[in-house]
Known about the structure:
The chain is α+β, with helices and mostly antiparallel strands and 724 residues long. The protein has 6 domains: 3-61, DNA polymerase, domain 1 (Orthogonal Bundle), CATH 1.10.150; 67-115, no CATH class; 124-227, Phosphatidylinositol 3-kinase Catalytic Subunit, Chain A, domain 1 (Ubiquitin-like (UB roll), Roll); 248-383, no CATH class; 396-613, no CATH class; 617-716, Hect, E3 ligase catalytic fold. The protein contains 26 helices and 25 strands. Strand 18 (396-402), helix 13 and strand 19 (425-431) form a beta-alpha-beta unit.
Amino acid sequence: MTEIDEEFFMFLRGRGIGERVIRTLQKEKIDSSVIHYMSDDQLAKYIETYGDRVAIFQHYKKGTSGSKRKHTLLSKLRKKLKLRSTNMSAATDESSGDSDVEYTSKSVRQSSADKLIGNKNAKKETRMIEIGWIVKETTRSVQVRTKQGGGTRRVSLNKRAKKSEILEIGQSLFFPHGQSRKGSLTSFDFDVWDFTENVHDDKITIGEMYDETKLPMLRFYIATTRKRSKTSVTESDMTELSQDKSAGVSSSQPTSVEQATGENMVVDDGNTNGDRLHQESTQRPDGNVTQSVVGDLPGSEAASINPEINDSLVLQDHEIPISEDTEVVAVNNSDHIENDERDESDTQRLDFDAMLAMQSMVGDSDSDILFDAITDNIEVDDTIPLAEPTPPTVKARTIRVHRGNVLKELIDAFKDQSLKPGIDIITIEMVLPNGQTEAGEDNGGVTRDCLSEFWSTFYEECTVGATYKVPFLRHDYGKDQWVAVGKIMDFGWKQEKYFPVHLAPPFMEYCLYWDIKSDLTEVYTSYLPESETEIVNQALNNFDSVDEDELLDILDSHQCKTKPTSENIASIIAEIAHKEIIQEPMFVIDCWQQVLTPLKLTHEEFLEMYNNLKPTARKVLKILKYPDNLSPAENEIMNHLHRFIRGLDKNTLGKFLRFCTGANLMVKQEIWVRFVDLAGLARRPVAHTCGCVLELPRSYENFPQFRSEFKSVIDSGIWVMDIV
């Protein structure tokens, strides 16, 4: 009888089942292994009590599978313990004769090695890394995006790989077959940067960097700098050319030019903008072939052939010997040559950039410049026809928009590809809800009023944020709509110096410069609602005093996945700010960048624009202009106006400016105040937005009366241009 069977019958005795029943079960060979297959009716033939049968079923049917699993686990554990015991014994034998300290050290190392048994990752010889591509320009470094052939690539490299292996794999990824959208492999100088965008040490392996930085994934960049073409000229080759010509060598045979006056003269090729050039070959009557370069050649410094010195070519203060019957002709469209400044044997001008342009046509940057002899004089005016550029066609365009629907209608108008802001003369007509056109003539005031209404509606319907705002993506706004909004921004700035300064500065900096120059965290606190701003500032300044539940609610609303602490709260806020202000509206940035980049605003001009356009009471008071010799009544009304302006908040101050100038920003530098005689129901402030004129009645008896009527006009927001 097994231990399990004995335990089964002991269980029955514990339940008070008689020995006669137990002997019957033993005779019928009914034990714990059979109970699983018996039904209650079958067991009732031997055990009459229902409760005993339920106890047996519960104990053995449910418990046995668990007991078997437990038994299996215990068996496995015993095997592992036996294996470890064997290893420990071997370690003890090896360490016999050593001190107790040495034995303990070996045992610990052996134990650590045992933990790696079955851990495949611990034995891997390769690690994953990320590789990106950065193009170094004159003043900045730009990471190449995926659609331009860059992006982030993940590759597996040996842990012993160094800088050269990373560079090799990066070149194969970003320059397949030696080519990329930025140019060929031979057009760049290469380097490898680490995740801090510093030059990677060529002696450090990937495995060592992982051990040192403890980062989950290392990132490297292939940094490229476009090579600058270099050309050199030698005196010996030019002398050889002269000797060959004297000996009767054919003038059509090219000769290389490498140095001047025995010294290496190196010239940087600054023609990186793809100037338009083409080469023409002409068969002359004497059999010689004339090579000429036609196109737009940059540069102002030139070399000349002095007619008094027939055997030398003066090239930027370097003399190059040439033969008497050799002439060099170069064409430079950028320089205007007057006819009266040239004579029959005038000094021909050779722009050094023209030499570089010719070089780019005959070979790569390492090729020699080839000169050919020209036997006849060629006038510059005969070499290339100078055609005057066709001026763009200027059209007068009138855009009709309805009040209350300015956002949609102005976007639809600027989606028209034939509309050219900055070239066409664009005027605005405002249409009332009843279909009648407002009587106001657009001399600037109607356009400013239309732009103010457009951007006010845009802030409400297309942006998120409190003081500073950021566009959010709408399902009904595609590329055409966002590009049109960018065109409206461009039009407003060029025509009326109106710019939406309530858009977050880092967002606009990314549109203009593809870089962030402002303090992202500071702007983000102005982007948040006032209640959230207070909590975030408290967390940044004194983390221990902030209400943790409120802070977690705010971070959770922005999909934060990291638990904030006093050490990481600043980095968390900076990361969320970048996500909210830059990453999420990236599609809008792409659409606007192509429109706004031609504005060519420097960052200093950008900051000055943001500062100057925002209205304050002090700025508004400075631009108010009054007639000379005010009467006592007029002087009192002037004081009422100043007191009224000082009491306005930022929002109402913008409404006051819009009432007077058409724009809710400081786009005008003067507001002329005139005093008129209006009384009774006709008494009210009147503004002429085109001329920025404000008319005030003289009949106000006190300041509360003045404030009440003026504030009612401003708060109504219903202003009709009914004065031509």
